[in-house]
Amino acid sequence: xxEPQRLIELNGAAERGGDYVLYWMQQSQREAFNPALEVxxxxxxxxxxxxxxxxxxxxxxxxxxARHYAFMLEGLADTAQRLRARGIGFVIRRGAPDAVALGLxxxxxxxxxxxxxLRIQKQWRTHVAAAAGTRVLRVExxxxxxxxxxxxxAQVGARTLRPKLAxxxxxxxxxxxRQRPRRDAQDLxxxxxVDLGDIPRLLGRLSLGRAATPVSGLRGGYTQARARLDxxxxxxxxxxxxxxxxxxxxxxxMLSPYLxxxxxxxxxxxxxxxxxxxxxADRDSFxxxxxxxxxxxxxxxxxxxxxxxxxCIPAWAQRTLGLHARDPRPVLYSYEDLAAARTHDAYWNxxxxxxxxxxxMQNYMRMYWGKKVLEWSASPREAYAVLLQLxxxxxxxxxxxxxxxxxxxxxxxHDRPWPERAVFGxxxxxxxxxxxxxxDIKAYARRWGAAALQ
Length: 454
Ligand SMILES: Cc1cc2nc3c(=O)[nH]c(=O)nc-3n(C[C@H](O)[C@H](O)[C@H](O)COP(=O)(O)OP(=O)(O)OC[C@H]3O[C@@H](n4cnc5c(N)ncnc54)[C@H](O)[C@@H]3O)c2cc1C
Fold this sequence. Notes:
single chain; Rossmann fold; DNA Cyclobutane Dipyrimidine Photolyase, subunit A, domain 3; 3 domains; 6-stranded mixed beta sheet; 20 helices; binds flavin-adenine dinucleotide
C-alpha cells in the first residue's frame, strides 16, 4: 500500500483518453521499491493501458560532469532492463526533463511523476503540471516521511526534527507491493534517441563538464546498490556506532551516491537495516543518519530559498564569522591548490586525493575537510563558495540536499554556538588531534600517498 500522504495532485486536471499512462521518471531512477512507478502501474491497470516510463537526459544539469553522468547512466541502463522485463516501456530522450516529459505527455491519459527538492526539480514539475493538459500526480518516494508532513518550515537542527520523525516514521516504513502490469508495453510505437548500450561512447557524445572523470570503484544502479546494502548488513552494520568516528578504516554503507540518484529507496534500506541481526545501538545510529540527518537536509533545501548561497547559514553564524572575517589565517589556499590536494596538511591532502580518485569520502573526514577550507580561505564567504564547488564537482553524491545542508553545517547550520576562537568565532572548530586520537590516520595518509608540502 502506498501511503496517501506521498501523493499530491499537481494541477487538478481531469484524465483523458490516451495511448498509455506516462511515468515521467526524474528523481527516483529505479524500478525496485518505487512508489511513483507502482502508482503508474495501478493507474495503467485501471485504465486498461500500458505504462510508459520516460526520462529526459540533458547535458547541462547545473554542476554535473562526466563523473556524475557515468554513474547515473549505469543506473538507468539497469533500470531500463528491469522495467522491460516487467512489461513496462522505457524511453530516454535527449532534452530538458520537462520538455521531454511534455512531449511524451501528448499521448498520455495521465502523468505520474516523482519528487525532488532542488529548485530546478520543482520548476520542472510546475511547468509540466501547467502544460501537460491532463492530470499530473506527484508521488514522494525518496524520503521515509514526506517532507511537508514531517515538519512545517525549516528546522533549526536535528533536535527539533527528530521527535517529529519519530512520531511518524513507523507509519511510512512499510513494504511496497510490486504489481503486475496487465497490458504489456512492447507494442507501443514510442522511440527514444539515447542508446544506453555503450555508456563510454554516449558520455563522449554528451557535452559535459570534464572537471571530474568517471570512477571505476563505484558502479551505478539498483543491482549494485542492493548488493552493497546486503554486504554492509552482513559485515559492516555491527559496530557501526563506534566506526563512524574512524575515517581511516571506513565501515560504512557507501549508499549515498545511490540514494542521491534515487537508485535505491531509503525505505527499502531502512527496512533491511531495522530487521538486521545487529545490536540495537548500531541499527539506531544508522537510521539516525539515513532518516534524521538525510531528511533534515531535505527539510532545509525544501524550505530555504537560498540553500546554495552563503546567506543560507543562520544569522548568529553569519554575525560571528563576519566579526572574525579579518582575523589572520594560518595559511591561504586557492581553489586550484585545494583541488590539487596541495596543502601543508597530509591528512587533508589524503582525504582530497581519496575524493578525486573515488568520488567518495567518509563522513568524519568530510567534517574535518570542510572545516579546514573555512580556516584556510580569505573570507568565510569565499570559503563557502570554494567548498561547495569542490563538494559538488568531485563527490558522486554531490549536488544533493545533503551536500547543501552539510556544507552549510561547516559554517554553523544545524549546529549551536561554541566557545569563541580566531577565524571561526563561535562556529565549531575541528583539529587533527581528533583524527589522530580516533583513527590510524597516518596509515590513511600513507594509503592515499598524500605527502605534505615541505
Ligand atoms: C562537509 C560535508 C559535505 C558532505 N557532502 C555530502 C554530499 O555531497 N552528499 C551527501 O549525500 N552527503 C554529504 N555529506 C554527508 C555524509 O558525509 C555522507 O552522506 C556520507 O558520508 C555518505 O557515506 P555513506 O553512504 O557510506 O554513509 P553511511 O554512514 O553508510 O550512512 C548511511 C546514509 O545516511 C545518510 N547520511 C549519513 N551521514 C549524513 C549526514 N551527515 N547528512 C545527511 N545524510 C547523511 C546518507 O544518505 C548515507 O548514505 C557531507 C558531510 C559533510 C560534513
